[in-house]
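Most newcomers find our protein records easier to grasp once they have seen one. Read left to right, the backbone structure tokens trace the chain's path through space. Nothing more is needed to start thinking about how sequence determines fold. An example says more than a description, so a record of this kind follows:
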Amino acid sequence: MADGWKKALAGLVALVLLVWAVSATWKSLGGDSAAKAANTRTLMDVETGALVDVVVDENYGPFPMVNPKTGKKTLYQTEICYARTCLEKGGTHVIMNKLLGKEGPTFCPECGALVRFHNPGPRTETTDGE
């Protein structure tokens, strides 16, 4: 009877190790690319204006986040302005004043339009009604 339990336990341990190995391999190869794409956010470096794609995981936030290229905490979420000329070039990423600790409304540095949290997208009414 003891040999039967030892074989069962050894089989269970082997199965757990196999599942762990397959899972680790899957993750190292990129896992589910659709899920990864759905969980990717574009952040902006407040110092350089560079856009950085970050995968949302347990390390996402708080802001500012560390820029993997510089090691500095300079990455913030953005809203995208689709008003006026920004729409023609596919939108302009804008960091909201509130996230930067600044008072007052946020205006697009490219076209001057008011930008809000959850800013309207390109197929809806633009931020300033134009």
Notes: The radius of gyration is 23 Å. The longest helix spans residues 2-28. The CA atoms of residues 91 and 117 lie 15 Å apart.
